[in-house]
Amino acid sequence: MSQATVAIRPARGFVLPRFLTSEHPFPWLAPITAVLLIFGVYPLLYALWLSLHKRNPATRISIFDPEYNWLKILTDDRMWGAIGHTYLYTIVAIAIELVLGLLIALLLDTDRRGYGVLRALMTLPLVVPPAVTGMMFLLMMDGSFGVLSRGLYATGLLSPSTPILANSSTALTGILIADVWQWTPFMVLIMMAGLRALPKDPYEAAAIDGATPVQAFFKLTLPMLSKIIAIAVLIRGVDLFRTFDYVKVMTEGGPGTATETLTAYAGTIYFKNADFPYASTIALMTLILVVVTSSLFIKIFKVRF
């Protein structure tokens, strides 16, 4: 007895477009490539084009003059002062955050009960917007009612006649305090990841040989963490070089120009003076300094990614 052959049709459902099922990487790289071109390459080229023009503030007309802004930078004392403030701010902030981050990471590098909560709490300052952090410390350092200022007055470390942010000798320190509070946890997280990745065998051998914890730290921990430290310093240094929020909110570059960094100076030229070509030139100079400094750091410390 013959059996009837039944044709089974595949159920029709949602079918992905062919280019999404291809193994070629272009469909997956296209969106991020478009984002980089729109928000990265185009602004850079536009800033370069602006830097080749001279703007007349009276007529608000830009004239093509390739040398004007670049020669102006060389004779701009305020520009060189901003470069000095930027490097000073970056170096001091990195040094403090690195030392504090490593020390706190060593304290939290344990599996004891409750330390996981402490490690989680360390990330809270990182989620606060820098502008909000700047406003918080601006209020805390207020000469009349700020809790930090009044505490320093009570201990005699600061005179009420010289408020922190209103004194040219202490204003940059006030901004640094806000930066250190917010970004030291970033260093802590990186250092803890590095500490957790270190092998245990060298420490066991050092303990058998009678090495003290201090000797183990300087002879084993620091050398093995050197690459992690270098990468952390590089990432944090690039970020510090373009600091704008704290300066803008807390001092606006003052008193005078005592806390004016490169990005703050560029912001002043752009928003207050409306000299877009010169502001773009300062921004490009900042980029050049970042690239040169980072390249030297990578070459000297032999950083590998």
From TrEMBL:
Pfam families: BPD_transp_1 (PF00528). It is a multi-pass membrane protein. The chain crosses the membrane at residues 28-52, 87-108, 120-140, 183-199, 220-238, 278-301. It is found in: Cell membrane. Belongs to the binding-protein-dependent transport system permease family. Residues 83-297 form the ABC transmembrane type-1 domain. CDD domains: TM_PBP2. Keywords: Cell membrane, Membrane, Transmembrane, Transmembrane helix, Transport. InterPro entries: MetI-like, MetI-like_sf. SUPFAM superfamilies: MetI-like. This is Sugar ABC transporter permease.
